[in-house]
Design brief:
alpha+beta, four-stranded antiparallel β-sheet, 5 helices, elongated
Length: 142
């Protein structure tokens, strides 16, 4: 119950959280600390509207590597790039799916040419432009 509520409102006070999940304040605090210390709760973040910060262009990039020898280097480099906001390693082809944010199409094209094609081991990149986000910031079904 604590996790369900916090997924909806991570800024909720411990007092309000305790009341909503039917606990007194001290046990709620203890359980919350346990969830944080064990890594179940990884952190708290603001949900920022990309369009309001001039990052309304979104592309999904499928990446195929030449071979598996550069996989660790590729993963390390991807982790350092802020414009890549999500990255998943996939089974089969392609090898990775990257979610990239940019100001507009020309900015994405520059990022593609200057950054993506220079990543270690890249053989093939396929981009798909996101037309509309139907659902984002999904909660875990717990």
């Amino acid at each position: 119950a604590i996790l369900r509520r916090l997924q909806d409102d991570g800024r909720m006070t411990a007092t309000a959280l305790a009341e909503e999940v039917g606990l007194t304040l001290a046990p709620c605090h203890r359980r919350l600390r346990e969830l944080e210390n064990s890594g179940v709760i990884r952190g708290y973040r603001a949900d920022v509207d990309p369009a309001k910060v001039n990052l309304a262009f979104e592309a999904l990039v499928f990446v195929t590597l030449k071979d598996r020898l550069t996989m660790k280097d590729f993963e390390h480099e991807v982790g350092k790039i802020d414009q890549i906001i999500d990255a998943q390693r996939l089974f089969g082809e392609p090898d990775f799916l990257l979610r990239v944010m940019a100001v507009d199409l020309p900015a994405y094209q520059r990022f593609y040419d200057d950054v993506l094609v220079t990543l270690p081991g890249v053989e093939k990149l396929t981009s798909t432009i996101v037309m509309k986000n139907l659902k984002s910031g999904g909660r875990l079904p717990i």
